[in-house]
Amino acid sequence: MSKVKVGQKLFSKNIGNAARNRETKITPVTVVKVGRKYFTTRENSDTTGWTDTQYFIDTWAENTNYNATSKLYGSLQDHEEEQETTKLHDKIRNTFGYRPTLKLDTLRRIVELIEKDQE
User: Fold this and answer.
1) What residue spans of 1-119 are helical by DSSP H?
2) Is residue 4 part of a domain?
3) How confident is residue 47, by pLDDT bands cut at 50, 70 and 90?
4) pLDDT on residue 107
5) In total, how many domains does the chain have?
6) Rg (the chain; Cα; Å)
7) ∠ CA 49-27-53 to the nearest 5 degrees?
8) Predicted confidence band at 45 (pLDDT cuts at 50, 70, 90)?
9) Residue 49 has pLDDT above 70, yes or no
10) Which structural domain range is residue 84 located in?
11) Residue 66: inside a domain, yes or no?
12) Which of 3, 6, 19, 88 is the residue whose CA sits 20 to 30 A from 72?
């Protein structure tokens, strides 16, 4: 997470109950206030006017007593990369389900790649 500044443009995605029975969408927001522990973003919604949401500076997690309704991204590229990572992870997990059907040579190459990446 990078340091936020007043006036910085971020992107908010509705999650959890805010996305239930609704289209998940990415909304541009602006940082309007930065404190020591929290920062505040503002969204200009046509239906509700200005909507302010507070996030923790160190994690960008929404400050709420209940379930979070939004997740922040520094750019649209960050969101797209997260989506692709999730899709690839799911594909790998499904491939290595209860009984992997991969050949031994393929499994050895995969382990070799994993070990090289963890160095």
Assistant:
1) 76-95, 104-117
2) no
3) low
4) 84
5) 1
6) 19
7) 60
8) low
9) no
10) 9-117
11) yes
12) 88
